[in-house]
Structure formats: C-alpha cells, structure tokens
Amino acid sequence: MLRPHQTATLAALLSIAAACSPGGDNASSSTPPDSTARAAYGTTTPESRTFAALVDTYLDGWAGFYPSIAAGNGLHMHDDRLEDFSADNIARQVAWFRDMKEQLTAIPSAALTPDERVDQRILSGVIDGWLLDLEVAKSWQRNPMIYASAVTDGVHNLMTMESSPAELRMQRVRAKLRGVPALLDAARANLANPPRILAERGLGMFQGASAMLANDLALALAEPRGAAFDSMMTEAVTAGAALDAFIAEYPRTILARANGTIALGTEYVEARYRAEELIDVPSARMLEIAQRELALEQALFVEKARAIDSTRAPMDVWRDVLQDHPKRGELVAATRKVVDELQQFVTSQGLVRLPSADQVIIEPSKPFDIGLASMHASPPMESPPVKSIYYITDANASWPAERQDKWLERFNYPSLTITSAHEAMPGHFVHSLFMRETPGKIRRIWIGLNPFPQPSSGQDGWAHYAEHLVIEQGFKRDDPRYAMAQLSESMTRICRLIVSLNVHVNGWTIDQGAKFFEENAHVPGPAALQEASRVAYDPTNGGYFLGKRAMLTLREDATRLGGSTFNLREFHERVMRNGIAPWWAHRQLLIPGDSGAVIR
Q1: Within a domain: residue 434?
Q2: How far apart are the first and last CA of the chain?
C-alpha cells in the first residue's frame, strides 16, 4: 500500500533531483565525471566502504568469468580472455557466486545509504539468477548458442568499440582467439541433450562465427597493418579451422543427440523473474495482465485503422502503411530526419531535457554487422565515453527490386519513427546519457546476453515506454498510422510474454507460439516463427512489456502522490538517472518505503 504522507516526499525528491541535475536549464551542459556519480553513494561508513569494495570485487570476478558481456558494459580488464565453460570452471563459478552472496548478505542493510540498499538487493537478485541458470537450467549443458556467442560477441566488441587503440584491440583479439579450441572442447563435453531448436540455432551461430573471422575481422580492424594485424589474422585462421572442424562434426554429434525439453517449468520461470527482475507475481497473474493489455491494444489498432478508412479491413489499411517507406539509398538520411524531429518534440514538449551536448550518430550498418536497426550507445561505465552510433541497414543494391521493397517495408515512416524512439530518442541513447550520472556501478550495467541474468525490464522497458510516450504525448497526432505502428510493436512485445509463459509453463509448442504471434500481433509467418523460437533460449523475455507496464504503474502512482507538484520531465529524468534497475528498485528510490504492486 502507498502511504498518504509520501505525497510531500515524492515532490521533494523530484525537486531535489531537478535541482541537482547538472547544468540547470542549459540542455547542452556537460555531464559530471564518473567520480562525481560514484561520490553520490555517500560511502562514509565502514559498511558503505565494505559494500563498495565488494561491488568492485564482484565486477572484476564476473568480468573474468564473462569477459564478452563485461566488455559491452565498458569493463575491459579481461578483454584478452574467452569464456571458459568447462565443467571445472562452472563449479568454480557456482562456488564463487555463493561466496559473493554470503559476503553481500553479511553487510547490514540498515547501515547503508538508500542507493546502496537498493543496489545490494539488485545484486543479490542477479546472483540468484546466475545460480538458477548454472545449477537449474544449466545453459552450459542445454544451449550451444552461448558457446558461439562467446566468440562472436567477444570479438565483435573489440572489432567495433573504439575503447582502446586498434593495435591493442588486435592483440586482445589474438589472445581471445587462442581460447577457441578449449571452448569447443567444452561444448563437445557438456552439450549432452540440448533442445533441438537451440541446437539448430547454435549451428547457424557457429557458422556465423567462422564467417566473421574469415571475412569480417580484417574489414573491421584493417589498420594499422603490421605485426599486430598479422598475428591476429594468423590466430584467426587457426581458430577458424577449429570452428570449421566443429561445424563439420556437429550434425553427427550435437544435433544427433538434441532431443532435450524446451520447457523450464513454472517454478524456474517465476524464480528467475523474482531474482533479476524482483517481480514476485505468479505466472498465471502475469498472463492475465498480458491478455488484458493485448485485448486493449488490439481494439485500439482497429480503432486507428478505421480512423484512416472505415470501409476496409484493418490489416488492409496496415499493408498500405507498410508501402510508405524511404527508397533505397535514402534510408539513413530519413532516419536522421526522424531522430531530429523526435529530439525537437521530446525537448519542446517537456518530456526530457538532454543532460549533455552529445549527439547520436546515424550511420549505415557495417558490411559485417547486418541487422535491421541497432543502437550502439556508449556503455555508461565506459570512460571516456565512446561514440554512440545508431546503425540502420538499407536494402542491398544487388537484390531484386521486389526483395528490396520487402526489406524496406519494415522501415515504413511510422515504424521507422517508433524504432527510432526506442533505440535513440528518448529511448536507449538518452537513457545511456543519464546513466553516466547513476550512483555506484550496479545500475550502470548496460548489456546482458540471453539467457543470462539481467534486469532487462529496466532497460528495454524504458525504451518500450519511450515508443508509447511519444505517441501518447501527440507526436504526429493527426496521422493515425503512427499510432498503428506503435500498437503493432506493443502487441508483439505482449505476445512475447504470453508465448514465453505458455511454452515454459503450460506446455505450448513453438509452432503454437508462432501461430499466436501471427493471429494476435499480425506478425508474418517466418518472423512469427523466429519470435516464438526466441522463448526457447530466453525464458524471461517478457521484460519489454513488463517494464513498460511497471513504468506506467509507477507513473500513475507518482502522479497521484505528487498532485499539482508532479512534473513529468523531472520524473522521466529521475527514472533514467536511477539507471537500469528492476522496477521495484525504482519505486523504492522514488517512493521510499513503498509497498505498492510493481505491475497492475
């Protein structure tokens, strides 16, 4: 229950947050250095100093076990290592996580500052999530994808993140690739009976890793040529040969014994949500909330379609929307224009005040990094910050015209706007700017790697809320196509939670999940199957929807408590400045002592 006396508390907190925000009313003021953010912890007591030291110990140890994920978070102390998934090292990890949990629990929470208490709880839950994965789900035995990702993500970070000179990154790639044969030996030993869908996806990822080393590495790290480059490429040939041998044997080894069960069960899924997301809600209740919200979004989708043309079926109207897209060669410029329009809108409407003069760079995707669209924001713990780049992938000039047009349908102007709100403005990019001011380090962990634990609802939930926010606040208010695009994304994210829970808890097959995406979110067949397949390796992929739902719940409560003093911009900035955190933590930081529901 929310307490009546918290009205004044919330208003005061938001006022203090605004007053302490760097630069006053100047939107282009400089972000304070990381030392200022860390000092905000107020580590003056022995318990506070013990906690800060334990966080550093944890992050160093975690980065040693998972250097590829750590590098994506700006933690580069082990960039020269490759993950070790041997059974012996898994046992060491379990013992280490248990020791970290014991040390963390020994610190009396009452002696910590409010920020530290929240971070202590978050870290405790994340550790629980790791132990659940290592000891219960055992991804190291069931999921070949984590082995391939260790290579692709680890090397890709060094290829693309200019966090150190190119020559040093070449040396680190070389050192990392030396671990490939041992990684593959661990995969051979551990992957006894993976679910077939994970084995099939894993094979594709191993093939991608081989192609990356053969074709892409030299493109990304082309200069300077010299001894470091030559040594890196020599090691890449050796690692590539090991990968190719593993790929050749894969059908008769890994695939031949891939008959494992996909479903992880009610107890496991609910425990994972309780751990890293701090959402203690039964799966049946989560399904009820998701189905309620899906019905509302579906009705709105029909309403917006009828506002465009009441004589036609909603999907016929939507198919027309898909046809209105930039031409090939114009996509990057169109995206720049959209981001500029969104920035003007969110700042002029008082939705957010940018905390620094940093601007997101919009570029075509690299030849070796082809996806639809992705935000490569500077990790909040990267010091100094690297460039934040929003990559967008145009149609290939060599494709037939029909294929080019089909690709560009995904970038119809309304959907391009919603994607850009999510990735850049006011989504991930803006969030990353505010997180440079987040106290401590725990809530500045930016990137995870599915299926491993992370509070994705705090990161992806904010970005998904950003899509909702710009439409709700009137962006392109007179053009219902933009609302349809936002609702299309929303329905897809809700279906992710529904399908995930039904597959892992209620016995659905992947094909049943794909059919649900097709019928309820209007996702085309191949994409629907891809969406449904994702739940096999990502049992908590409801974070987008749950995070947005939790944000709207918190906003509703904050508005009620703040009354006439509530300021939406200050609220948004405080949430972003509080970092990537489970929404229980956001509620504690904004409404101290809160016991209200995280999602309703």
Answers
A1: yes
A2: 13
The answer to whether 354 and 28 are in contact (CB under 8 A) is yes
Beta carbons of 300 and 507 less than 8 angstroms apart: no
Q: What is the mean pLDDT of the chain?
A: 91
Cis peptide before 426 (omega within 30 of 0): yes
Least confident of 169-173, 273-277, 449-453, 580-584: 449-453
Instruction: Break the chain down into helix, strand, coil percent, rounded to 5.
Output: 65, 0, 30
Distance CA 218, CA 414 (A): 37
How many domains are there within the chain? 1
Residue 598 contacts residue 3 (beta carbons within 8 Å): no
CA distance 287 to 383: 41
Taking the C-alpha atoms of residue 214 and residue 216, their distance in angstroms, rounded to an integer, is: 6
- For the stretch 399-409, pLDDT in tens is 999 999 999 99
The DSSP string of 258-281 is --------HHHHHHHHHHHS----
Q: Is residue 391 part of a domain?
A: no
In a domain, 16, yes or no: no
Distance of alpha carbon 204 from its chain centroid, rounded? 22
Q: What is the model's pTM?
A: 0.91
Full domain range(s) for residue 299: 268-354+413-548
Structure confidence by residue, pLDDT tens digits, 11-38: 433 433 333 333 333 333 333 333 333 4
